[in-house]
Amino acid sequence: MTTQEKEEFTLSIYSENHVGLLNQITTVFTRRHINIESLTTSESAIAGIHKFTIVVFATADQIKKLAKQIEKRIDVLKVFVFRADEIIHQEIALYKVSTGSLLGGNEIEMLVRQYGARILEITPEYTVIEKTGHKNETQELFEKLEPYGVSQFVRSGRIAITKLKKELLESYLKKLETDAIQLN
Amino acid sequence: METQSQLLMKEKTTKTTRMSGSEAVIQSLLREGTSIIFGYPGGAIMPIYDALHDHQKELHHVLTRHEQGALHAAEGYAKVTGKVGVCFATSGPGATNTVTGLANAMMDSTPVVLITGQVVSSLLGTDAFQETDVVGVTQPVTKWNYQVRRAEDIPAAIARAFYIARSGRPGPVVIDITKDAQINQLDFYYEPVKSIRSYTPEYPADLAQIEEAARLINLSKKPLALVGQGVIIGNAEKELLDFLEKSGIPAAWTLLGLSAVPSDHPLNVGMLGMHGNYGPNIKTNEADLIVAIGMRFDDRVTGDLSRYATNAKIIHMEIDPAEINKNVHADVPILGNVKKTLPLLTEKIVKNDHSDWLKEFEACQRVEYNRIIEKQLNPIEKGITMGEVVAKVSQAFDNDAIMVTDVGQHQMMGARYFKFKQSRSVVTSGGLGTMGFGLPAAMGAKLGAPDRQVCVFVGDGGLQMTIQELGTIYQTQIPVKIVLLNNNFLGMVRQWQELFFDKRYASTELINPDFQTIAKGYHIPSLKVSERQDLDEAIQKMVEADGPFLLEVIVEKEGNVFPMVPAGASVSDIRLE
Ligand SMILES: Cc1ncc(C[n+]2csc(CCOP(=O)(O)OP(=O)(O)O)c2C)c(N)n1
């Protein structure tokens, strides 16, 4: 087997909504020493089904094996693996700056407009700015704001949507039903 | 479609009976056909034991001397019967003592259901007396686990546990039940699980892959079949023989595939892997086609992967998708149960004969005989060899006993020199290599197959890891035949020290107790042999004994198991000395 280059993959993992599943999934990564770059989890569009979006750097071969090991967990329904060009993804970032520095000149407001961010809340003490985008974009805005004093900066994990026309999970669930009928 | 919690809480429309959670545990086990339980009581599981007390006729409880022993006994029972082995343990230390057994069952795909008692639900997370996070601790070593905190969830959880443990690639399942759930009342209704939407135990055969496999088999000049435990788990021994006999393909086996093909079958060319036979190892790199049947290319079988099966296309027949392309790239993967895929393949291949290729294996066998086997079986030196004891014991049982082993040199000698007529005749710890497995596993095997002779080979090291199970054997009068191959060493480790660490015997020599006195203390008849001339008679005494028997044989101190593929070497680098 050839040693492949590491690249970025986004895994969409669907599971039953069951206590302890996050642990079951993350131990598959830990055991193989693959670092999780980002992770978000919440209920999926289908009631009762949970969704995990996990970003990792790994080789294609590692990812294939990893996905099978995750799918092997009884309560995991399906794992879909995507390369960056197969999905549209976003992260959300929040920045807290002092309201004084916002009012001190128009530079911050310029940055907010230039970066397609928005002001979420203004109080006499602080102002919260929100930006969605890719990590490098939210990072860039952070670096631009820093000279004006950023007292807090947080960034979420990734959420992603596929570029495909059909809904992968729904077609998978339909297939499950027809397979079950054939097998019985 | 329902979520799992909805499934577990499903409205019961059919007639129900009011009972306690503990009684529901017993009733659920009976519905699953359980007739024997291996276990050990304690505070958090006392209500279940109390309920069991009313069902002693239908449910035989074997009180082991340690929870690890209970798990291994259940594994032995499962291996020889193909049924699910069932265990009970209490919370905290009871549960943690089972971890080695669970890990062993996980590695070797053995169906086991362990029910553990847990502290009352209101105390969960408070570091209560004997509380451990059993679900957390056992998660990496179970196929599935689940904590039940409400009496009404017990039947559905147990139904799921059995379905998961025995379907697809089998494995261990833990159900952790809080004490209040055991005590509270529920309306009992039992419905066996037939499917789980997030779990596909078996995939249907892909006919295009079967066509392609048949094409490769029909073209191949030097094909080699690798027979794994999947054949035994799938009860596909007949399907395998049909395939082998039509294709004429020589069959080599993994340690856990042993006994799937009778020892004297003309196509049986021997064992694969580190201490396997010379032919199948060396020929792996000459074969032009490998047909792997229900096996997972473990590193003890393949050695260095970059120099493994270098000239061969690979057909991999396997039930677990995660095993396909895990270690060895499969040119033709055939997912599914070999019980179903083998006949489809057999139908598509032409009848063939590979007698010239088979002759090459015979030549290898002669080399191995002259260099190794002859010296084991007919030694000229004074010391008794492990190989000669194994071969004599096998013969004394008419080559038709169930062989159980512990882990070490004696295990490899057992696999190499014991002979088999029927399947499900080997119980050994493969993937985990668990010392201490043998004695308790033998108890379970004998209770699962009361009409067969069960003989366990164990080293003086491994015996002392679970020696307390002699107490279980005495109390339960389980007629297992224990052959202790005593070399006063942790033999297998000593062998590696001799070969790879300049004979520096760091902490491998054992100063042992008098095992005869120990056997006597447990009221188990025993004999000790240190001279070759006494061996046959002692073996005969053991064979004829009605109850349990311990035969201790003092074997040569520094005997080695050969051939050997050193760890990390290629199968082509197999050493004959
Ligand atoms: C629980 C456990 N601890 C350690 C080992 C490592 N180990 C493998 S074989 C072996 C020696 C076994 O010695 P013995 O039981 O006397 O059998 P022999 O090899 O002499 O036949 C050891 C220590 C193991 N497999 N399992």
Automatic annotation (TrEMBL), chain A:
GO terms for molecular function: acetolactate synthase activity; acetolactate synthase regulator activity. Dimer of large and small chains. GO terms for cellular component: cytosol. Residues 10-84 form the ACT domain. It is an enzyme of class 2 (transferase). It holds the Pfam family ALS_ss_C. Pathway: Amino-acid biosynthesis; L-isoleucine biosynthesis; L-isoleucine from 2-oxobutanoate: step 1/4; Amino-acid biosynthesis; L-valine biosynthesis; L-valine from pyruvate: step 1/4. Keywords: Amino-acid biosynthesis, Branched-chain amino acid biosynthesis, Transferase. Belongs to the acetolactate synthase small subunit family. GO terms for biological process: isoleucine biosynthetic process; L-valine biosynthetic process. This is Acetolactate synthase small subunit. It catalyses: 2 pyruvate + H(+) = (2S)-2-acetolactate + CO2. Catalyzes the conversion of 2 pyruvate molecules into acetolactate in the first common step of the biosynthetic pathway of the branched-amino acids such as leucine, isoleucine, and valine. The keyword Transferase applies. Its EC number is 2.2.1.6.
From TrEMBL, chain B:
NCBIfam families: acolac_lg. Residues 19-135 form the Thiamine pyrophosphate enzyme N-terminal TPP-binding domain. GO terms for molecular function: acetolactate synthase activity; flavin adenine dinucleotide binding; magnesium ion binding; thiamine pyrophosphate binding. Pathway: Amino-acid biosynthesis; L-isoleucine biosynthesis; L-isoleucine from 2-oxobutanoate: step 1/4; Amino-acid biosynthesis; L-valine biosynthesis; L-valine from pyruvate: step 1/4. This is Acetolactate synthase. Belongs to the TPP enzyme family. Its cofactor is thiamine diphosphate; Mg(2+). The keyword Amino-acid biosynthesis applies. It comes from the Bacteria. Binds 1 thiamine pyrophosphate per subunit. Its EC number is 2.2.1.6. Residues 210-343 form the Thiamine pyrophosphate enzyme central domain. One of its GO terms (cellular component) is acetolactate synthase complex. Keywords: Amino-acid biosynthesis, Branched-chain amino acid biosynthesis, FAD, Flavoprotein, Magnesium, Metal-binding, Thiamine pyrophosphate, Transferase. Pfam families: TPP_enzyme_C, TPP_enzyme_M, TPP_enzyme_N. Residues 406-553 form the Thiamine pyrophosphate enzyme TPP-binding domain. Gene3D superfamilies: 3.40.50.970, TPP-binding domain. It catalyses: 2 pyruvate + H(+) = (2S)-2-acetolactate + CO2. InterPro entries: Acetolactate_synth_lsu (IPR012846), AHAS_TPP (IPR039368), DHS-like_NAD/FAD-binding_dom (IPR029035), THDP-binding (IPR029061), Thiamin_PyroP_enz_cen_dom (IPR012000), Thiamin_PyroP_enz_TPP-bd_dom (IPR012001), TPP_enz (IPR045229), TPP_enzyme_TPP-bd (IPR011766). The keyword Amino-acid biosynthesis applies. It is an enzyme of class 2 (transferase). One of its GO terms (biological process) is L-valine biosynthetic process.
